[in-house]
Amino acid sequence: MGSTHNPTEEPARRKFFARVIATIQTAIAATVGVVAGGSILSPSFARREENWLPVGATFSTLTDNVPTAATLRVAREDGYSQIVERRVVLLVKTGEGQVTALDPTCTHLGCRVSWNVESKELRCPCHGGVFDHLGMVKSGPPPAPLPRLETKIDGDRILVQI
């Protein structure tokens, strides 16, 4: 009576809609992949900003192979204000024109190490960790040497990269 139903049209219509849905799903998956991949990989491709800071000691005041505590002033922006943090590093004059900078935080549980003049060792007061003058573990529980920081010398000034 009024309607003509063609049975071959229905499978073609289903295939068409199946392709449209598959295309939409592929586009959504590609978009999610780009966003997720970009957020995961972008930090590894970002250029690390070099931040060289002068320390509160000069090369000529350091004694050979004796760790000397020096202070860094680390300024950072926090909203509308600037916050200045002070960070202590240990400087070791290892030769003519060479300085090693050590982070004085013990690698065991984060206590601050200090130089013992009599034993000529860096000692952790918390759990008995002992390091040599270059931060290498001599005894105790520390699992790794003290972290080293990059240094360069500009005239008599010492710069440390953080």
Order of helices and strands: HEEEEEEEEEEE
- How many domains in all? 2
Shape: elongated
Assign the CATH class of the largest domain.
Mainly Beta
Question: What is the CATH T-level topology of the largest domain?
Answer: Rieske Iron-sulfur Protein
Class from helix and strand fractions: alpha+beta
Please name the CATH architecture of the largest domain.
3-layer Sandwich
**Strand residue percentage:** 35-45%
Topology of this protein?
Elements: H1 9-45, E1 52-58, E2 68-78, E3 81-95, E4 98-102, E5 114-116, E6 121-123, E7 130-131, E8 137-139, E9 148-149, E10 151-154, E11 157-161
Antiparallel strand pairs: 1-11, 2-3, 3-4, 4-9, 5-6, 6-7, 7-8, 10-11
Structure explained in plain terms:
By secondary structure, the chain is an alpha+beta fold. The chain folds into 2 domains: 7-46; 52-161, Rieske [2Fe-2S] iron-sulphur domain (Rieske Iron-sulfur Protein). The chain is built from 1 helix and 11 strands; from the N terminus they run H-E-E-E-E-E-E-E-E-E-E-E. It has one helix at residues 9-45; strands spanning 52-58, 68-78, 81-95, 98-102, 114-116, 121-123, 130-131, 137-139, 148-149, 151-154, 157-161. The strands form 3 sheets. A 4-stranded antiparallel β-sheet has the order 2-3-4-9, with no helix packed on it. Strand 5 and strand 6 (121-123) form a beta hairpin. The longest helix has 37 residues, at 9-45. It is elongated, with a radius of gyration of 30 Å.
Describe this structure in a few short sentences.
By secondary structure, the protein is an alpha+beta fold. The protein is 23% helix and 37% strand.
